[in-house]
From TrEMBL:
InterPro entries noted in UniProt: DUF72 (IPR002763), UPF0759_sf (IPR036520)
Protein name, per record: DUF72 domain-containing protein
Origin organism lineage: Bacteria, Pseudomonadati, Bacteroidota, Flavobacteriia, Flavobacteriales
Pfam families tied to this protein: DUF72
SUPFAM superfamilies, alphabetized: TM1631-like
């Protein structure tokens, strides 16, 4: 994952900013309702052996089957590149445990090629028809917009969000800095997501600290964390544990945290480390993946 990569991570201030003021309002509203159980999902972005080197034991025949018995979720990036047939989603469903969830990315046909124009809706329908074969294992779907998709496309965003079938949970990642630098635009965006119960994705990557807006818009923290293949990766995760614990204490009930790296080799190790720390801090009991390389071995 090259997005936000820097040559020298040691010069980056990785401190997590203070919460946006309205995040407190969202959490207070959630705590008053207190109508769902707490859910924690932590995983990687991919399961293939080529990316997750040294993770699979020798002789592993089915990578997804093994991966899904180590982690409780996957951020499914493969679905960005093409719309898989429903039969493929059904096969993924059958290979994974009952408590496993997929968090698939919407196709680039929707986000990057047609950029939410009025031609995207047949693609949305086809995608959702296929992805629905995951049944109860379908987690939040996420939409990632191109870096150059800016607020001049605001009308497209409104139409897309309001037309989205609400039986499918959606989170959205905006990467153009103007969505957050202009306070009026930012507030309009946050309120649109709030009104439609959609998550505002938090992206923690070295070269784009401007995306750390720390603004929750519903009862879901959807975090995409990009490690820098640097010793600071573990300290950054420690800080996330504290922020997530604070949000949970204030009422947050859904944490979906996905670990990436510029070079994915250490992603399972970072994820295992994070799960262990969250179990200690939050009192949860997620299974900790059995990794083949000791933590911090590459630093």
């Amino acid at each position: 994952m090259k997005f936000g990569k820097v040559e020298d991570p040691s010069i980056i201030d990785f401190s997590i900013p203070s919460d946006h003021g309205d995040t407190e309002v969202i959490l207070n509203n959630i705590k008053e309702k207190n109508d769902t159980a707490f859910n924690l999902y932590v995983g990687c972005a991919k399961w293939n052996r080529q990316d997750l080197k040294n993770f699979y034991p020798r002789g592993t025949k089915d990578e997804l089957e093994y991966y899904s018995r180590q982690f409780n979720c996957i951020e499914l990036n493969a679905t960005f590149y093409r719309i898989f047939p429903g039969e493929q989603f059904a096969k993924w469903y059958d290979k994974t445990p009952d408590d496993f969830k997929f968090f698939p990315k919407l196709s680039q046909d929707i986000s990057h090629l047609r950029r939410l124009n009025d031609k995207v809706y047949p693609f949305v329908d086809a995608y959702l028809d296929a992805a629905s074969n995951l049944k109860e294992k379908l987690g939040t779907i996420f939409l990632q917009m191109h870096n150059n998709f800016n607020p001049k496309n605001w009308d497209r965003v409104i139409t897309f969000v309001e037309r989205w079938p609400k039986e499918f949970k959606l989170a959205i990642e905006f990467r153009h800095t103007d969505w957050f630098n202009d306070e009026k635009i930012a507030q309009e965006l946050y309120h649109l997501l709030e009104e439609n119960n959609m998550a505002n994705i938090l992206v923690d990557t070295a070269g784009r600290r401007d995306l750390m807006h720390m603004r929750l818009t519903n009862n879901e923290a959807f975090v995409r964390y990009v490690g820098a293949n640097h010793e600071s990766d573990y300290d950054r995760l420690d800080e996330w544990v504290e922020r997530l614990a604070m949000w949970k204490d204030k009422g947050l009930q859904n944490i979906h945290f996905f670990v990436h790296q510029n070079l994915e080799v250490e992603s399972p190790l970072l994820s295992a480390y994070l799960i262990g720390k969250l179990n200690e801090r939050l009192g949860t009991s997620l299974r900790i993946p059995q990794t083949l390389v000791p933590p911090k071995s590459l630093f």
